[in-house]
Amino acid sequence: MSEVRVLVGTQKGAFILTSDAKRTAWDVHGPLFAGWEIYHMNGSHANPDRLYASQSNGWFGQVIQRSNDGGQTWEAVGNKFAYEGVPGTHQWYDGTQHPWEFKRVWQLQPSLTDPETVYAGVEDAGLFRSIDGGLSWQEEPGLRAAKGHLWQPGAGGMCLHTILFDPSNPQRMFVAISAAGAFRTDDGGETWRPINQGLVSPGELPDKTAEVGHCVHNLALHPSRPGILFMQKHWDVMRSDDAGDSWHEVSGNLPSDFGFPVAVHAHEPNTIYVIPIKSDSEHYPPDGKLRVYRSRSGGDEWEALTNGLPQKDCYVNVLRSALAVDTLDSCGIYFGTTGGQVYASIDSGDSWTPIVRDLPKVLSVEVQSLP
Amino acid sequence: MIRVVLPQHLRTLAQVGQEVDLEAEFVQTISSVLDVLIKEYPMLRGTIVDQVTGQRRPYIRFFACGQDLSLEPMATPLPEAILTGREPFRIVGAMAGG
Question: What is the predicted ipTM?
Fold first, then answer.
Protein backbone atom coordinates (compact mmCIF):
# COMPACT_ATOMS: atom_id res chain seq x y z
CA MET A 1 0.00 0.00 0.00
CA SER A 2 1.48 3.32 -1.01
CA GLU A 3 1.79 6.20 1.39
CA VAL A 4 2.09 9.93 0.90
CA ARG A 5 4.19 12.17 3.09
CA VAL A 6 3.69 15.93 2.78
CA LEU A 7 6.54 18.02 4.17
CA VAL A 8 5.34 21.46 5.22
CA GLY A 9 7.67 24.28 6.22
CA THR A 10 6.07 27.20 8.04
CA GLN A 11 7.07 30.43 9.67
CA LYS A 12 6.88 28.79 13.10
CA GLY A 13 7.99 25.23 12.59
CA ALA A 14 7.63 22.18 10.37
CA PHE A 15 4.80 19.70 9.99
CA ILE A 16 4.67 16.27 8.38
CA LEU A 17 1.31 15.17 7.02
CA THR A 18 0.90 11.51 6.18
CA SER A 19 -1.81 9.43 4.58
CA ASP A 20 -2.29 6.15 2.80
CA ALA A 21 -2.84 6.18 -0.95
CA LYS A 22 -6.49 7.10 -0.55
CA ARG A 23 -5.37 10.49 0.74
CA THR A 24 -8.60 11.06 2.64
CA ALA A 25 -7.46 10.67 6.26
CA TRP A 26 -4.34 12.51 7.35
CA ASP A 27 -2.08 12.33 10.36
CA VAL A 28 -0.50 15.66 11.32
CA HIS A 29 2.90 15.42 13.02
CA GLY A 30 4.38 18.61 14.46
CA PRO A 31 5.30 21.29 15.08
CA LEU A 32 8.91 20.25 14.62
CA PHE A 33 11.55 22.89 15.41
CA ALA A 34 8.78 24.92 17.05
CA GLY A 35 9.08 28.65 16.70
CA TRP A 36 11.74 28.54 13.97
CA GLU A 37 11.23 29.43 10.32
CA ILE A 38 11.42 26.37 8.10
CA TYR A 39 12.03 27.70 4.63
CA HIS A 40 12.27 24.24 3.10
CA MET A 41 12.12 20.57 3.99
CA ASN A 42 12.84 17.94 1.38
CA GLY A 43 13.42 14.20 1.05
CA SER A 44 16.08 12.24 -0.77
CA HIS A 45 14.99 10.60 -3.99
CA ALA A 46 17.44 7.76 -3.37
CA ASN A 47 16.41 7.17 0.26
CA PRO A 48 13.00 8.64 1.12
CA ASP A 49 13.63 8.36 4.85
CA ARG A 50 16.56 10.75 4.56
CA LEU A 51 15.07 14.22 5.02
CA TYR A 52 16.73 17.61 5.18
CA ALA A 53 15.27 20.78 6.70
CA SER A 54 16.38 24.39 6.60
CA GLN A 55 15.75 25.91 10.03
CA SER A 56 16.50 29.58 10.63
CA ASN A 57 15.51 32.81 12.26
CA GLY A 58 16.76 36.36 12.41
CA TRP A 59 18.30 36.02 15.87
CA PHE A 60 20.14 32.73 15.72
CA GLY A 61 20.88 32.26 12.02
CA GLN A 62 20.88 29.06 10.03
CA VAL A 63 20.61 25.46 11.21
CA ILE A 64 20.41 22.42 8.92
CA GLN A 65 18.56 19.41 10.27
CA ARG A 66 18.77 15.86 8.96
CA SER A 67 16.57 12.85 9.59
CA ASN A 68 17.25 9.20 8.81
CA ASP A 69 13.81 7.90 9.75
CA GLY A 70 11.35 9.92 7.75
CA GLY A 71 11.18 12.79 10.20
CA GLN A 72 10.65 10.95 13.48
CA THR A 73 14.06 12.02 14.82
CA TRP A 74 16.44 14.73 13.69
CA GLU A 75 20.03 15.84 14.17
CA ALA A 76 21.57 19.23 13.50
CA VAL A 77 24.35 18.92 10.93
CA GLY A 78 26.65 21.46 9.29
CA ASN A 79 25.57 25.07 9.09
CA LYS A 80 28.70 26.88 7.93
CA PHE A 81 28.05 28.49 4.56
CA ALA A 82 31.19 30.36 3.57
CA TYR A 83 31.36 31.79 0.06
CA GLU A 84 34.45 30.82 -1.90
CA GLY A 85 37.11 33.53 -2.04
CA VAL A 86 36.25 37.18 -1.54
CA PRO A 87 32.47 37.31 -1.85
CA GLY A 88 32.44 40.70 -3.57
CA THR A 89 29.37 42.80 -4.18
CA HIS A 90 26.06 42.68 -5.97
CA GLN A 91 23.60 45.35 -6.97
CA TRP A 92 21.46 46.81 -4.16
CA TYR A 93 17.86 48.01 -4.53
CA ASP A 94 19.03 51.52 -5.46
CA GLY A 95 21.60 50.34 -8.00
CA THR A 96 24.62 50.78 -5.73
CA GLN A 97 26.93 47.86 -4.99
CA HIS A 98 26.37 45.95 -1.75
CA PRO A 99 28.48 43.26 -0.02
CA TRP A 100 27.51 39.64 -0.44
CA GLU A 101 26.28 38.31 2.95
CA PHE A 102 24.90 34.88 3.81
CA LYS A 103 21.41 35.08 5.36
CA ARG A 104 19.60 31.76 5.03
CA VAL A 105 18.97 28.60 3.02
CA TRP A 106 15.89 28.83 0.84
CA GLN A 107 15.99 25.44 -0.80
CA LEU A 108 17.49 22.02 -0.11
CA GLN A 109 17.56 19.71 -3.10
CA PRO A 110 18.92 16.21 -2.51
CA SER A 111 20.64 14.47 -5.41
CA LEU A 112 18.54 12.13 -7.56
CA THR A 113 20.91 9.24 -6.88
CA ASP A 114 22.90 9.79 -3.66
CA PRO A 115 21.24 10.55 -0.31
CA GLU A 116 24.50 12.01 1.02
CA THR A 117 24.68 14.63 -1.72
CA VAL A 118 22.44 17.64 -1.32
CA TYR A 119 22.43 21.14 -2.79
CA ALA A 120 21.47 24.30 -0.91
CA GLY A 121 20.21 27.46 -2.55
CA VAL A 122 20.95 30.41 -0.30
CA GLU A 123 20.39 34.13 0.23
CA ASP A 124 22.47 36.17 -0.73
CA ALA A 125 22.27 34.07 -3.83
CA GLY A 126 24.68 31.20 -4.10
CA LEU A 127 24.67 27.45 -4.58
CA PHE A 128 26.30 25.15 -2.05
CA ARG A 129 26.81 21.40 -2.18
CA SER A 130 27.34 18.82 0.52
CA ILE A 131 28.57 15.32 -0.27
CA ASP A 132 28.53 14.13 3.34
CA GLY A 133 24.87 14.36 4.20
CA GLY A 134 24.96 18.00 5.17
CA LEU A 135 27.90 17.85 7.56
CA SER A 136 29.94 20.29 5.46
CA TRP A 137 29.11 22.63 2.60
CA GLN A 138 31.14 23.96 -0.32
CA GLU A 139 30.06 26.71 -2.68
CA GLU A 140 29.82 26.23 -6.43
CA PRO A 141 31.43 29.62 -7.15
CA GLY A 142 31.03 29.43 -10.91
CA LEU A 143 27.43 30.49 -10.52
CA ARG A 144 28.22 33.89 -9.03
CA ALA A 145 30.70 34.41 -11.85
CA ALA A 146 27.70 34.61 -14.19
CA LYS A 147 27.47 38.40 -13.84
CA GLY A 148 26.76 38.28 -10.11
CA HIS A 149 27.65 41.94 -9.74
CA LEU A 150 24.49 42.76 -11.71
CA TRP A 151 22.16 40.60 -9.63
CA GLN A 152 19.85 42.41 -7.24
CA PRO A 153 17.50 41.40 -4.41
CA GLY A 154 13.79 41.04 -4.99
CA ALA A 155 11.31 41.97 -2.30
CA GLY A 156 12.00 38.69 -0.50
CA GLY A 157 15.76 39.09 -0.65
CA MET A 158 18.35 37.96 -3.18
CA CYS A 159 17.61 34.29 -2.90
CA LEU A 160 18.45 31.19 -4.88
CA HIS A 161 15.09 29.49 -4.45
CA THR A 162 14.87 26.84 -7.15
CA ILE A 163 17.22 23.97 -8.00
CA LEU A 164 16.30 21.47 -10.73
CA PHE A 165 18.20 18.44 -11.98
CA ASP A 166 18.06 17.04 -15.50
CA PRO A 167 17.50 13.31 -14.87
CA SER A 168 18.81 12.45 -18.34
CA ASN A 169 22.06 14.36 -17.92
CA PRO A 170 23.85 14.41 -14.54
CA GLN A 171 26.03 17.29 -15.74
CA ARG A 172 23.06 19.61 -16.28
CA MET A 173 21.28 21.61 -13.58
CA PHE A 174 19.05 24.66 -13.53
CA VAL A 175 18.68 27.27 -10.79
CA ALA A 176 16.59 30.40 -10.41
CA ILE A 177 17.35 33.52 -8.41
CA SER A 178 15.30 36.56 -7.45
CA ALA A 179 16.19 38.95 -8.97
CA ALA A 180 18.84 37.64 -11.28
CA GLY A 181 17.05 35.13 -13.46
CA ALA A 182 17.53 31.52 -14.50
CA PHE A 183 20.90 29.85 -14.96
CA ARG A 184 22.14 26.52 -16.31
CA THR A 185 25.25 24.43 -15.94
CA ASP A 186 26.23 21.75 -18.44
CA ASP A 187 29.39 20.67 -16.64
CA GLY A 188 28.17 19.55 -13.25
CA GLY A 189 28.22 22.99 -11.65
CA GLU A 190 31.66 24.25 -12.60
CA THR A 191 30.46 26.92 -14.99
CA TRP A 192 27.06 28.54 -15.39
CA ARG A 193 25.40 30.81 -17.88
CA PRO A 194 22.28 32.95 -17.75
CA ILE A 195 19.33 31.50 -19.67
CA ASN A 196 17.00 34.48 -19.82
CA GLN A 197 16.59 35.18 -23.51
CA GLY A 198 12.94 36.00 -24.17
CA LEU A 199 12.17 37.29 -20.69
CA VAL A 200 10.79 40.82 -20.73
CA SER A 201 10.63 42.92 -17.55
CA PRO A 202 9.71 46.49 -18.51
CA GLY A 203 8.53 47.45 -15.02
CA GLU A 204 11.58 46.21 -13.19
CA LEU A 205 14.64 46.70 -15.41
CA PRO A 206 15.99 49.69 -17.33
CA ASP A 207 16.85 47.29 -20.16
CA LYS A 208 13.72 45.18 -20.23
CA THR A 209 15.45 42.28 -22.03
CA ALA A 210 18.68 42.34 -20.01
CA GLU A 211 20.74 39.18 -19.82
CA VAL A 212 20.38 39.08 -16.01
CA GLY A 213 18.23 40.85 -13.42
CA HIS A 214 14.83 39.30 -14.12
CA CYS A 215 12.75 38.34 -11.11
CA VAL A 216 12.14 34.66 -11.78
CA HIS A 217 9.84 33.24 -9.11
CA ASN A 218 9.92 29.53 -9.87
CA LEU A 219 10.86 26.90 -12.46
CA ALA A 220 9.45 23.43 -13.11
CA LEU A 221 10.11 20.53 -15.46
CA HIS A 222 8.81 17.04 -16.04
CA PRO A 223 11.49 14.35 -15.66
CA SER A 224 10.53 12.73 -18.96
CA ARG A 225 11.08 15.97 -20.87
CA PRO A 226 13.84 17.86 -19.07
CA GLY A 227 14.45 20.13 -22.04
CA ILE A 228 11.05 21.74 -21.59
CA LEU A 229 10.96 24.25 -18.75
CA PHE A 230 8.11 26.25 -17.29
CA MET A 231 8.61 29.48 -15.40
CA GLN A 232 6.51 31.74 -13.24
CA LYS A 233 8.18 35.10 -13.52
CA HIS A 234 7.33 38.17 -11.44
CA TRP A 235 4.89 38.88 -14.23
CA ASP A 236 4.39 36.35 -17.06
CA VAL A 237 4.21 32.60 -17.21
CA MET A 238 6.93 31.42 -19.60
CA ARG A 239 7.96 28.25 -21.40
CA SER A 240 11.19 27.10 -22.95
CA ASP A 241 11.45 24.20 -25.40
CA ASP A 242 15.24 24.28 -25.58
CA ALA A 243 16.42 23.89 -21.96
CA GLY A 244 16.24 27.59 -21.32
CA ASP A 245 18.11 28.85 -24.39
CA SER A 246 14.99 30.83 -25.27
CA TRP A 247 11.63 31.52 -23.64
CA HIS A 248 8.17 32.47 -24.85
CA GLU A 249 5.17 33.61 -22.91
CA VAL A 250 2.28 31.19 -22.27
CA SER A 251 0.18 33.32 -19.90
CA GLY A 252 -2.76 33.10 -22.32
CA ASN A 253 -6.12 33.63 -20.63
CA LEU A 254 -4.93 33.74 -17.01
CA PRO A 255 -6.74 36.40 -14.93
CA SER A 256 -3.31 37.60 -13.79
CA ASP A 257 0.07 36.41 -14.94
CA PHE A 258 1.68 37.39 -11.64
CA GLY A 259 2.24 34.57 -9.19
CA PHE A 260 4.83 32.50 -7.42
CA PRO A 261 4.79 28.70 -7.93
CA VAL A 262 4.51 26.58 -11.05
CA ALA A 263 4.25 22.79 -11.14
CA VAL A 264 3.95 19.97 -13.68
CA HIS A 265 1.57 17.01 -13.41
CA ALA A 266 3.37 13.79 -12.49
CA HIS A 267 2.13 11.76 -15.46
CA GLU A 268 1.10 14.38 -18.04
CA PRO A 269 4.17 16.40 -19.03
CA ASN A 270 2.04 18.95 -20.83
CA THR A 271 -0.26 19.62 -17.87
CA ILE A 272 0.92 22.48 -15.71
CA TYR A 273 -0.40 24.46 -12.76
CA VAL A 274 -0.06 28.04 -11.55
CA ILE A 275 -1.87 30.06 -8.89
CA PRO A 276 -2.49 33.61 -10.13
CA ILE A 277 -2.01 36.48 -7.69
CA LYS A 278 -3.46 39.91 -8.33
CA SER A 279 -0.23 41.91 -8.58
CA ASP A 280 3.20 42.56 -7.16
CA SER A 281 1.71 45.12 -4.78
CA GLU A 282 -1.38 43.09 -3.85
CA HIS A 283 -0.26 39.58 -2.97
CA TYR A 284 -3.63 37.83 -2.93
CA PRO A 285 -5.85 36.11 -5.49
CA PRO A 286 -7.79 38.22 -7.98
CA ASP A 287 -11.37 38.97 -6.88
CA GLY A 288 -10.86 37.25 -3.52
CA LYS A 289 -11.19 33.83 -5.24
CA LEU A 290 -8.54 31.20 -4.64
CA ARG A 291 -8.16 29.51 -8.00
CA VAL A 292 -5.54 27.10 -9.25
CA TYR A 293 -5.18 27.31 -13.01
CA ARG A 294 -4.41 24.24 -15.07
CA SER A 295 -3.25 24.09 -18.64
CA ARG A 296 -3.35 20.73 -20.41
CA SER A 297 -1.60 22.19 -23.43
CA GLY A 298 1.63 23.27 -21.81
CA GLY A 299 0.41 26.83 -21.44
CA ASP A 300 -1.64 29.49 -23.25
CA GLU A 301 -5.01 27.81 -22.61
CA TRP A 302 -5.92 27.72 -18.93
CA GLU A 303 -8.90 26.51 -16.90
CA ALA A 304 -9.79 27.63 -13.39
CA LEU A 305 -9.92 24.89 -10.74
CA THR A 306 -12.20 26.05 -7.94
CA ASN A 307 -14.07 23.05 -6.54
CA GLY A 308 -13.43 23.05 -2.80
CA LEU A 309 -11.44 26.28 -2.76
CA PRO A 310 -12.80 29.51 -1.22
CA GLN A 311 -14.46 31.64 -3.89
CA LYS A 312 -15.12 34.75 -1.85
CA ASP A 313 -13.24 36.89 0.65
CA CYS A 314 -9.99 34.95 0.25
CA TYR A 315 -6.84 37.05 0.52
CA VAL A 316 -4.04 34.56 1.14
CA ASN A 317 -0.93 34.10 -0.94
CA VAL A 318 0.77 30.91 -2.13
CA LEU A 319 4.54 31.20 -2.01
CA ARG A 320 6.97 29.90 -4.62
CA SER A 321 7.94 26.65 -2.91
CA ALA A 322 4.47 25.84 -1.62
CA LEU A 323 3.04 23.85 -4.58
CA ALA A 324 3.94 20.21 -5.20
CA VAL A 325 2.64 17.01 -6.77
CA ASP A 326 2.71 13.35 -5.78
CA THR A 327 3.34 10.49 -8.20
CA LEU A 328 0.44 8.20 -7.38
CA ASP A 329 -1.63 6.89 -10.30
CA SER A 330 -4.20 9.60 -9.77
CA CYS A 331 -1.85 12.52 -9.41
CA GLY A 332 -2.22 14.49 -6.20
CA ILE A 333 -1.63 18.25 -6.13
CA TYR A 334 -0.85 20.07 -2.88
CA PHE A 335 -0.35 23.68 -1.91
CA GLY A 336 -0.01 25.70 1.26
CA THR A 337 -1.09 29.29 1.88
CA THR A 338 0.10 32.22 3.90
CA GLY A 339 -3.09 31.74 5.89
CA GLY A 340 -1.93 28.34 7.10
CA GLN A 341 -4.13 26.08 4.99
CA VAL A 342 -2.72 23.09 3.14
CA TYR A 343 -5.04 21.99 0.33
CA ALA A 344 -4.89 18.67 -1.48
CA SER A 345 -6.44 17.42 -4.67
CA ILE A 346 -6.35 13.70 -5.42
CA ASP A 347 -7.80 14.09 -8.91
CA SER A 348 -5.28 16.29 -10.67
CA GLY A 349 -6.90 19.46 -9.42
CA ASP A 350 -10.56 18.85 -10.25
CA SER A 351 -11.52 19.07 -6.57
CA TRP A 352 -9.77 20.22 -3.42
CA THR A 353 -9.93 19.50 0.30
CA PRO A 354 -8.00 21.16 3.11
CA ILE A 355 -5.74 18.74 4.98
CA VAL A 356 -5.20 21.34 7.70
CA ARG A 357 -6.59 24.84 7.99
CA ASP A 358 -4.77 26.64 10.74
CA LEU A 359 -1.02 26.17 10.52
CA PRO A 360 1.36 29.13 10.69
CA LYS A 361 2.13 30.87 7.38
CA VAL A 362 3.18 28.12 4.97
CA LEU A 363 6.58 28.72 3.37
CA SER A 364 7.06 25.45 1.51
CA VAL A 365 5.36 22.17 0.60
CA GLU A 366 7.07 19.06 -0.74
CA VAL A 367 5.51 15.65 -1.30
CA GLN A 368 6.99 12.19 -1.08
CA SER A 369 5.22 9.23 -2.63
CA LEU A 370 6.34 6.19 -0.65
CA PRO A 371 6.05 2.52 -1.66
CA MET B 1 30.35 24.79 37.50
CA ILE B 2 29.04 27.64 35.34
CA ARG B 3 25.36 28.15 34.81
CA VAL B 4 24.24 29.39 31.39
CA VAL B 5 20.73 30.59 30.66
CA LEU B 6 19.69 30.12 27.03
CA PRO B 7 16.94 31.87 25.06
CA GLN B 8 13.87 29.81 24.23
CA HIS B 9 14.79 29.03 20.60
CA LEU B 10 18.18 27.68 21.59
CA ARG B 11 16.64 25.57 24.34
CA THR B 12 14.42 24.04 21.66
CA LEU B 13 17.41 23.43 19.42
CA ALA B 14 19.58 21.91 22.18
CA GLN B 15 16.60 20.13 23.78
CA VAL B 16 17.43 21.46 27.24
CA GLY B 17 15.69 23.48 29.90
CA GLN B 18 16.13 27.14 30.67
CA GLU B 19 19.54 26.67 32.23
CA VAL B 20 22.50 24.38 31.49
CA ASP B 21 25.45 23.61 33.76
CA LEU B 22 28.95 23.53 32.28
CA GLU B 23 32.26 22.37 33.68
CA ALA B 24 34.13 25.54 34.59
CA GLU B 25 37.67 24.27 34.90
CA PHE B 26 39.09 26.31 32.01
CA VAL B 27 36.46 29.02 31.80
CA GLN B 28 37.57 32.58 32.46
CA THR B 29 36.16 34.69 29.63
CA ILE B 30 33.11 35.18 27.43
CA SER B 31 34.71 33.25 24.58
CA SER B 32 35.73 30.34 26.79
CA VAL B 33 32.25 29.87 28.19
CA LEU B 34 30.92 29.87 24.63
CA ASP B 35 33.57 27.33 23.60
CA VAL B 36 32.56 24.98 26.41
CA LEU B 37 28.89 25.47 25.60
CA ILE B 38 29.41 24.58 21.93
CA LYS B 39 31.55 21.58 22.83
CA GLU B 40 28.77 20.27 25.05
CA TYR B 41 25.96 21.24 22.66
CA PRO B 42 27.39 21.23 19.11
CA MET B 43 23.99 21.91 17.57
CA LEU B 44 24.35 25.48 18.88
CA ARG B 45 27.41 26.12 16.71
CA GLY B 46 26.86 29.24 14.63
CA THR B 47 23.72 30.35 16.43
CA ILE B 48 25.46 32.67 18.92
CA VAL B 49 28.68 33.58 17.13
CA ASP B 50 28.80 33.71 13.33
CA GLN B 51 31.07 30.91 12.10
CA VAL B 52 32.42 32.87 9.16
CA THR B 53 33.06 36.27 10.77
CA GLY B 54 33.70 35.08 14.32
CA GLN B 55 31.51 37.94 15.53
CA ARG B 56 28.63 37.82 18.00
CA ARG B 57 25.42 37.61 16.01
CA PRO B 58 23.77 41.04 15.89
CA TYR B 59 20.61 40.11 17.85
CA ILE B 60 22.43 38.21 20.59
CA ARG B 61 23.30 39.84 23.91
CA PHE B 62 25.30 38.65 26.91
CA PHE B 63 24.22 39.61 30.43
CA ALA B 64 26.07 38.81 33.65
CA CYS B 65 25.43 40.02 37.22
CA GLY B 66 23.21 42.82 36.03
CA GLN B 67 25.78 44.00 33.49
CA ASP B 68 25.51 44.02 29.69
CA LEU B 69 28.68 42.43 28.33
CA SER B 70 27.43 42.31 24.73
CA LEU B 71 29.82 44.94 23.43
CA GLU B 72 32.79 43.86 25.49
CA PRO B 73 35.67 41.97 23.81
CA MET B 74 35.25 38.21 23.78
CA ALA B 75 38.38 37.92 25.94
CA THR B 76 36.72 39.88 28.74
CA PRO B 77 37.05 38.01 32.08
CA LEU B 78 33.76 36.97 33.60
CA PRO B 79 32.78 38.13 37.11
CA GLU B 80 33.66 35.85 40.03
CA ALA B 81 29.97 35.20 40.71
CA ILE B 82 29.63 33.70 37.21
CA LEU B 83 32.77 31.58 37.51
CA THR B 84 31.61 30.12 40.81
CA GLY B 85 28.06 29.48 39.63
CA ARG B 86 26.41 31.87 42.08
CA GLU B 87 24.98 33.83 39.16
CA PRO B 88 24.11 32.55 35.66
CA PHE B 89 25.66 33.81 32.42
CA ARG B 90 22.68 34.89 30.34
CA ILE B 91 22.59 34.54 26.55
CA VAL B 92 19.67 36.64 25.40
CA GLY B 93 17.86 37.13 22.13
CA ALA B 94 17.52 40.89 21.76
CA MET B 95 14.08 42.39 21.90
CA ALA B 96 12.92 43.07 18.36
CA GLY B 97 9.46 43.45 16.96
CA GLY B 98 6.21 44.17 18.71
Answer: 0.91
